[in-house]
Write a structure and sequence with these properties.
This protein folds into two domains: about 1-40 and about 50-80; about 105-225, E3 ubiquitin-protein ligase SopA (Pectate Lyase C-like). It contains three helices and two strands. It has helices at about 1-35, 40-45, 50-80, and strands spanning about 95-100, 100-105. The chain has a two-stranded antiparallel ribbon with strand order 1-2. A hairpin with a 2-residue loop joins strand 1 (about 95-100) and strand 2 (about 100-105). Helix 1 runs antiparallel to helix 3. The radius of gyration is 42 Å and the shape is rod-shaped. The chain starts with a helix and ends in a 123-residue tail after the last strand.
Length: about 230
């Protein structure tokens, strides 16, 4: 396609040059003739002025047409940013993870989603809306739930070991017998959460709000059993 375009450009240049050369030769010939004509000869050729004018107008029109064609066909190769050389492009292919018919990705709307027993290990659900979601017995090992909305979510028996729950809202969530060992819950809200018999071994509870949370029988980070 590039070779064909350049051939068209070359042809237009040749045609344009030929028209200019023809016009200049006619003008030069006319000037020479006019200089050598006698008064009588000039009077005899005055009747042909109209015909000459028509010829000149036709020549100018041809020049203008070729010039416009040059602009349309020849200009793009000079001003286009496209080249025949391959351009390296970096494509990022993101694999969409679908579990139980729900798309698993950051900030996804999963209000009341039934993901009970689902394999969500290593999933990125940061900032996701998981209010009242059913996540009992789900595998959430190493999952990113930072900043997620888990208000009244059912996480009973879920494996959250090594998960990131920093800044997550777990108000009134059910975490009965959930495994939260080595989980990062710094800055998380666990108001009125049911954490009875939960495993919190080596969990990061820095700045975690456990106001009114039920920790009966829970294994605390230091290994002690909360009464």
């Amino acid at each position: 396609m590039g070779v064909l375009r350049w051939l068209m450009v070359l042809g237009l240049f040749c045609a344009f040059g030929w028209v200019i050369w023809t016009v200049s030769k006619k003008i030069q010939s006319r000037m020479t003739t006019n200089g050598s004509q006698s008064l009588l000869e000039r009077e005899s050729t005055s009747n042909s002025d109209t015909v000459d004018e028509t010829v000149r107008e036709s020549t100018v029109s041809n020049v203008l047409i070729i010039f416009l064609l040059f602009i349309v066909l020849a200009a793009p190769p000079f001003f286009s940013t496209n080249t025949d050389e391959p351009v390296e492009t970096t494509e990022t292919t993101e694999t969409v993870r679908v579990v139980n018919g729900f798309i698993i990705k950051p900030f996804e709307e999963l209000w009341g989603a039934d993901l009970s027993g689902a394999d969500l290990s290593g999933a990125d659900l940061s900032g996701a809306m998981l209010r009242s979601a059913k996540l009992q017995n789900a595998d959430l090992r190493g999952a990113d739930l930072s900043g997620a909305e888990l208000w009244k979510a059912n996480l009973s028996g879920a494996d959250l070991s090594g998960a990131d729950l920093s800044g997550a809202n777990l108000t009134s969530a059910n975490l009965w017998k959930a495994d939260l060992s080595n989980a990062n819950r710094s800055g998380a809200f666990l108001w009125y959460a049911n954490m009875s018999n939960a495993i919190l071994l080596e969990a990061n509870l820095f700045d975690t709000d456990l106001s009114k949370a039920n920790l009966t029988g829970a294994t605390m980070p230091d290994g002690t059993i909360h009464e």
